[in-house]
């Protein structure tokens, strides 16, 4: 039942294997080398304040009397130094940028830079390879509110020798000038950021003026073409825009994070991996103003210039609260999404649960396939499953006839496609708008939607809401299963409770296995 997720020199993260989403079936006490350490109730938990290169014995004692134990060894490190030794004040008033950047720049390879308790006010920082940043409990890395002092990175520049583009920054699926993020790593390998401390983006100074900025808003953490990055235990909050943005990177591990932003904060997605290979998001808690997780692979122009699909992503044992979507694919997925697995997660009060969004013009490379959602629990989610090929945001032509026309247009280089989508072992309570809303394109229908062992009940006071974001969308309430332009619909052991009408609406669909659906009062 107990396995190791991640081990650094001073921290470790563990996961309980069971069938319970996010929360463990019973509470437990954690003992480290025989000494009580913490009380736990979640499937993923962390230990901090460990010593490098040491052996530890971990024992979990459950309320019901069972036990689980394992031994582990923390990793070695070359050295560890405090950022205060480089002149950082940590008082929240002084500008600690130069001290922190000097410490990062001169830290030996394999070293750890330690932030003791305090508030470290800083302008954007550049990270490098083979370093470990640790923020202690009570340590806050606080973004300076002086946005006029933030460097602006070019989206791309031509290489002086070949003339080929060199990419430096991007946002919303396009290479474009962007304010440097508070923590930026470019082309770095083996970057580790850990600790129970906090990274605060001071996002409010950007949220109120987004239409008049000379460049895209910064992220909290931007990883451009990086490899083997691990971020563990931190609280990330109030980013000017997306909080964690891995970009054309690979082998990214995000463990036991808390990501927070106010409900009305614009574009404050928690994690947006874009054109990445091998992203693992486990044991995290998200409560933000936009999508909790949004998997992306660029708009058409970027996807054709640097074709790299989003592949091999795993989301497990996470809690998503609030936000427009819990786990979203798109809409900027011009290079496609493959091999995505979401399991054992809990969604509370999000607008949509499992959400896929694309539109005409994303390109023929926009292919979504091999996507599975298993063992998910939702409560108070307006539309638990939303698949939308008519998404109408983020582009100048969003209201054009090309985007909204329900006529079958010629299949061309701008036509996206959705393959097989699997939704299994899903329990949704207190839904409002629709249980499942799938709207494909007439010229490119969704190939297959499988719902197996799915239970959806509607709230007694269900309120109308728009199930997906498209032109001319109308609010609905207690709509059961809605399918339009889907080649195959496979329903097995699907139960709807409190849905209006017959529970199933299908237009322009091929094979539908209706016998697997039960509609109860």
Counted beta strands: 46
Gross morphology is: globular
Could you give a short account of the major beta sheet?
A: 24 strands, parallel
Which bin fits the share of residues in helices? under 10%
Q: What count of helical segments does DSSP give?
A: 4
Task: Please tell me about this protein's structure.
The protein is mainly beta and 521 residues long. The protein contains four helices and 46 strands. The protein has a 24-stranded parallel β-sheet that branches. β6 (55-62) and β7 (67-73) form a beta hairpin. The longest helix is centred in the N-terminal third of the chain and has 10 residues, at 97-106. The protein is globular. The chain starts with a strand and ends with a strand. The mean pLDDT is 97.
